[in-house]
Amino acid sequence: MLIYLLKRLAQSAITVLFVVAIIFVVIRLIGDPTHLLLPPEATEADRVVLRHQMGLDRPVLVQFGAYLAQLARGDFGISYRFSLPAGQVALHALPPTLMLASAALVLALGIGIPLGVAAAIWPGSVVDQFGQIFAVLGQAAPPFFFSLLFVKLFSLHWAWLPTGGYGTPAHLVLPALALGWFAAAGVARLTRSSMTDVLGAEFVKFARIKGLAEQEVILRHALRNALLPVVTYVTLQFGLLIGGAVSVEVVFAWPGIGQLLYDSINNLDYTVVQAAVTLTAAIFVLINLLVDVAYALIDPRIQHG
Amino acid sequence: MVDIPLSGFLRRPAEPVLKLAPLRRRLGAGRRLQRGLAMLVSVVILAFALFGPIFEPFDPQAIDLSASFQPPSAEHWFGTDQIGRDVLSRVVEATRLTLLITGCVVALAGGLGGLAGIGAGYFGGALDALVMRLADIQLALPAIILAMVLAGAVGQTLPNLVLVLTLASWARFARVLRGEVLSLRTRDFILLVRLAGASRGWIMLRHILPNVVGTLVVLATIEAGSVIVLEATLSFLGLGIQPPGISWGGLIAEGRGFLGAAWWVCACPGLALMLAVLAVNLLGDALRDRLNPLLPSDLSS
Amino acid sequence: MIPSRFRLALLGAAILSSLSLTAPAQAIGGKPAVDKDTLVVALSAEPGNLDPQVAPSVDSAKFAWNVFDTLYGFDRTGKLEPRLALSHEVSADGLTHSFRLRDGVTFHNGDPFTSADVKYSLERILDPVTKSTRRPYFINLVTSIDAPDAHSVVVHLSQPDGAFLNKVAGYLYIVPKAYTQALPSPEAFAQAPIGTGPYKFVRHEVGRSLELTRFDGFWGERPAIRNIVFRFIAEPSSRVHAVLAGEVDLVTEVAASDVDTLKTNHGLEVLSIPGGSPLHVRIYSKDPTSPLHNRDVRLALNYAIDKDAIIKSVFRGLASPLTSIIPSSYPYGANPTLKPYPYDPQKARQLLAQAGYPKGFETSVYFPAVFARGAGEAVVAYWGQIGVKAQLKVIDYVAFNRINNVHQSGPLAFSEFGNAIYDPIHVIGGSVSRTGTWSDYDNPEIQALIDRIESVSDLEQRDAGFREILRRTQEDGQAIPLAELALNYAQDSALQWQPQIGGWSLSFRQAAWK
Question: Which residues make Cβ contacts (< 8 Å) with residue C152, sequence separation at least 6?
């Protein structure tokens, strides 16, 4: 077990390192921030001076080495744009996104699982068909589209909820709904199919033959097995949610890391982009690690697979 | 990252599975009607893509500044946009580019990702580790982020857009197919064939590939929907197709600023996009039922 | 029997269509978003860096005039007026500028304002360590600055500069010497900025808000509103929704297409003010093999466009016609006697034929993504009508700046020019002068005029000089002026506030609730 854990930790660290390296290099290919920071009247000489001050005239490998050394000290550098520590800026933006992603996931699971289970238990029924439409609709349009529609309906027309911003639980509802519908759709489909497969399996038939009540069969035996792939799916969804969160965050002015990344890339704020990407990659990898460890504990065969 | 083949441990005794299964009896009239409509929509979309100009009442690029923001009418079924262009014609014209992009991305991601996944699953070892590591890296870097950074670095051309979307989609194909191959590998009939002395290459060609093709096709149709939506999100962030090319996503993103003044500019392409994704998903479901009913019905894990 | 899912689908469609037919909700007019002591403003983007010497103008414009002062400032129309300085004198040779400073001014932290702070502020801008974005404006101009006594400063220039006072007003934000020097690093100032303005910094939550509160020790007229809260809402329709729902009191950068719907709302007041920026197509004309080298071609491109139609449709009428790259909203330097080129495609074709391109030619034009796409597509379509096939290359802001700076944005590029100093030299120097970083235009006669005007301080003479320059650039087809866009603001009807004309700096010194 310990060996497996160490192995997975090492793999995770390598993954994050590669992600950081890729972003480090690619963002420097976009161009350098001095073109944005200095006015049109500036000459190339002015830009050279500024570039030197920012340390951007050194070879990329040297810059990367220095960056890694900094990272080891826990220092993400200073944001060019804000003159604030980049790590602080990225960390400040992380909780809102985590909150949004979690709320969306909770919604997704809370709506998707019951819908999927019901659709599996009563195939061909109204619930099944509603579930199908709901599922497909949720993934049939980009999250920003739904966001705009939700705002028009719930914030302007019916004035139930704020149009955007951050602070109270009311502010979380619409963004979580817009993002969550997308994920709920996937969860519902997966639960339905997984549950259907499980319900047709030998051990379920066996349980029925044993004389167990239908409810107990479903809840205690079938559901638990059916949910395993859902858990896998949900962890994979995290990356997708962060991506989808960008557009939702922009529409709702939700101060999360998605919006920070969008802003920072547009402003070529290297240090903040690097810090934000490092943080999201680390979180993603951490969640995967935890899930894998959980699986390994459940099924020892996996450690050697 | 571990892959649990979805119901591997629940599967019935093995046998080759590629044969056209009779349509399940419990498919009600409703379901058939749904699928019929999906087919119809798909045919219409294909027609638009292949023979677009025939269906366009106006030239999609024809500007008429005096007819700006006309609401839907008999003359302009979907109204006009800010510079007087007919929205219906633009939606039809956008079909071509949207389908082209989606087709390329699905083919590339499916082909490359599929190959990687099959190789990883069948040969295992170092190849497996490499592919899984790469997939991890791709998944840890959300598609949008990758797109934003890449668009700035390599420029926003059509091939680059296809590249970005492919990079964002291949890992899913790889994972699913790897899982499929893994579970196939342990099946009795494969073991029997190996015992009989068949080489690995022969097994791959004759037994593995035909069985996973079905999965690949179904996953491709489902991924197509995701790609269309992802392209729309990229357009929203300003990273989509450049003019004069137009795609549904581009039209929606362009029109979203006018939802108050001229809702039809955004809503009509949005409707088209939703119908297309709906149709493609329902088709994927239908294909799955026909080709491989024993497969788990959701392949997006 | 209609299958149930179709009933559901019909219900869904009904809800969706009812959405689109609803009228916009009425804003809560007359009721502040928070209270009568607070003004909530929605901006399109973060100001980012709160150090006004480091932040680029487009960012510092959002807050700097409230928190900081300069020696001279601009009034609402762009005319210079004294702020921290009471008087200003230029020596006969134009190389020495003397300022007499105001008495009794204190910084937000209680430090008294003296000439030492002015000297320090300018030197701080010049110091590369500060990474000031304003350094290029002063580095080749200022040789030294003296503070002979506590209430006067003398600045020595290396060459005469008729717009020096404008630059002082636009760029030389005054920061406290003792406080700033004692900070551990130059970046620390942005984390806790101190100025002499009517509002002092309270809190900056990155990506969320910026809060200011009234400074009771302010040297000037006390502003009526105690607290200002800036919120950052990037998506244009979300900004509009926020003011409609009464969550913010004032929203900036309202799109032209939203103005009509907002105007019908009685709880809101919509202000459309000339923005002072010329939307035009810049031309790279130096290359002798390019068709654009030929004056007739450049004029043809001008005659081919129906600018009024574009203003009416793309900008919903919220723009003024433009005759040259200095719009009429400038306090001086614009040429009101010039007439815009009329829409005359026939004449355009004639000119093209005259120039040797009877069948037109192919070219490309860069288009920054932040501009209204419809304008670019319309212009390209008009050119197409006379045979000029131009490929529209939409490009994002970062890339656009970069290729402009290295002279790679030819042969044509859509441009605007924000101007923080209200003097035409900023625009002319950038795009008409031979040494302009954003052009390759080189006209010896006009260049002579530009060289001469650099040292002219007298306003009337400057005005006359620029008029002449503009007359000639129009004759020469130096650029293709399109329109001066209006900046649109929407505010609560109970709010009394007027925006800056011809500029985008936000100042709330005169804002008040009715």
Answer: C98, C99, C100, C101, C115
Would the CB atoms of B83 and C392 count as touching at under 8 Å? no
How far is it between the farthest Cα atoms of chain B?
Answer: 78
Domains of chain A listed by start with CATH number: 94-267 (1.10.3720.10)
pLDDT of residue C1: 43
Q: What type of residue sits at position A273?
A: V
Distance CA A283, CA B66 (A): 53
pLDDT at C195: 97
Distance to chain C for A248, nearest Cα, Å: 10
Asked if residue B10 is part of any domain, the answer here is no
- Between positions 236 and 265 of A, the ones with CB within 8 A of B are 236, 239-240, 242-244, 246-247, 250, 258, 261-262, 265
Instruction: With a threshold of 0.90, tell me whether the complex ipTM lies above it.
Output: no
- Length, in residues, of chain B: 301
Q: Is C234 touching A (CB cutoff 8 A)? A: yes
pLDDT in tens, B75-88: 899 999 989 999 99
Predicted pLDDT at C399: 81
Distance CA C195, CA C331 (A): 28
Residue A35 with chain B: CB contacts under 8 Å: none
Give the pTM.
0.89
Q: Please check whether residue B129 lies inside any domain of the structure.
A: yes
CB contact under 8 A, C257 and B263: no
Q: Which residue of C has its CA nearest to A154?
A: C19
Q: Tell me the mean pLDDT in the region A114-135.
A: 80
Pairing of strands C361-368, C412-415: parallel
Substitution target in A60, A129, A150, A193 with the highest count of B β-carbons within 10 Å is A193
Out of A92-96, A287-291, B13-17, least confident range: B13-17
Residue A155 DSSP one-character state: I
Overall number of domains in chain B: 1
CATH (domain of B290): 1.10.3720.10
* pLDDT over 60 (residue C55): yes
Q: Is the pLDDT of residue B32 over 50?
A: yes
The model's confidence at residue A302, banded by pLDDT at 50, 70 and 90, is low
- Rg, C-alpha atoms of chain C: 25
Residue B6 counted as domain residue: no
Range of the domain at B296: 26-300
Has residue B285 been placed in a domain? yes
